[in-house]
Amino acid sequence: MTNSDNPIFSQVSSVHAMSPANAIKHFFANKQLEKFNDIQLKHVSAKEDLTSLLTGFSSHGLDDLNNANLMSRVDSKFILPMSFLPVLLAGIRSAYSVLKINDKQVFEYQNYYFDTPEMRFYNDHHNGKLNRFKVRHRNYLDTNTQFLEVKFKNNQNRTIKTRIKLRGQAEQDDIEQNELCSQFISQQMNRKFQELIISQQGGYSRIALASEQRAERLTLDFDLWFQGQASHSEKVALPGFFVAELKQNKHSKQSPAYQILTANGFHPTSFSKYCIGCALIYGNSLKSNQFKKTLLRIQQFNVVEPTSQPWSHLND
Length: 316
Description:
Shape: globular
Distance between the termini: 15 Å
Strand order of the largest sheet: 2-7-6-5-4-8-9-10
Mean pLDDT: 81
Strand content: 25-35%
Structural class: alpha+beta
Radius of gyration: 19 Å
């Protein structure tokens, strides 16, 4: 699976060459939307020590969740300034436990997303199609645990996640593992795994909270970053906000997290890490007008920071 013949990637060399610090500005300039006029994006430069913020939470392990496992669920997402993180954690301390592994409570995630050469999965989401898929290789960096995952959003707006454990990267030349991946993708999507390409790399830090009593989980993701497939592309880093995702068996506004968020003026919004990342790194090569409101929301909180990290696994 290579991207050399992918029409999307052949069109975006000018975007990849751009400084990622201008990525959001580039998006708005090309869409002829509101201009930034050199206004600095808000940046929360000082974070409170996360360990102290999580003091007082009870903890759970990976095998402790039953009701709150939620591989089939409904989601409510909130985009929030980093300055609100201490307020949120203080307000929900008695209602949730925090995932703790080897004395760690903040974990690093890295994802490789797959799509068709025509970016079918991205476009399905952009166009509001239900019964749509996303495919990713997820790496839990702190435990070196890796999965190939398929997320299916059905016409009831329910997210159903299935996955298989990997012993290495799904895209590597491992005949036995590739056969396993092929069978999995065929069963879940009726597609050929070999026809998919890596369309994006990304990552973030996560605090994972859960309530077994209410059968819900709350994930708090921050320090998001995205990178395109081209080996010379730079990361687009988004440090100024975090994403709270409330995962429930069925929607309930009685959730302690939901109540404190809405009481402080925050309301659920659409946010896809995959789609927002693609909109930023591929710019005008992909249609992205449906994500305008989300990108404007990010603008309120964020400074875009460029960093460099080539796709080392493609250079081996």
